[in-house]
């Protein structure tokens, strides 16, 4: 019995020394430690670079930026959007005015 126990202790000692040498985590009980997450590269800096800050997002908005600068700036995307809406309305495809939608039309039919 003592021979088997000493072999187990020797294996544990060898595993501990080898983990120190090779920089691995020594975990003789096999518990979950989350060490695999700690070994991963830190992603925080990349995420900060990928997602713009709140200040940058607010500065991109042209009306707010034009108020700060003090001169009239034009947002090309907004102008294109408004032109597309006008074209749809001219064909009868635009959104209905307030109170003229499907629900309002059904309510008017009920009242009659």
UniProtKB/TrEMBL annotation:
InterPro entries per UniProt: Ribosomal_mS33 (IPR013219)
Region entry Disordered, spans: 88-112
| Keywords of this entry | Mitochondrion, Ribonucleoprotein, Ribosomal protein
Matching Pfam families: MRP-S33
Q: Main localisation, per the record? A: mitochondrion
Cellular localization per UniProt: Mitochondrion
Q: Which cellular component appears as one GO term in the record?
A: mitochondrion
* The UniProt record lists the keyword Ribosomal protein: yes
Q: Give the family, as the similarity comment puts it.
A: Belongs to the mitochondrion-specific ribosomal protein mS33 family.
Recorded protein name is: Small ribosomal subunit protein mS33
Organism lineage: Eukaryota, Fungi, Fungi incertae sedis, Zoopagomycota, Kickxellomycotina
User: Gene encoding this chain?
Assistant: RSM27
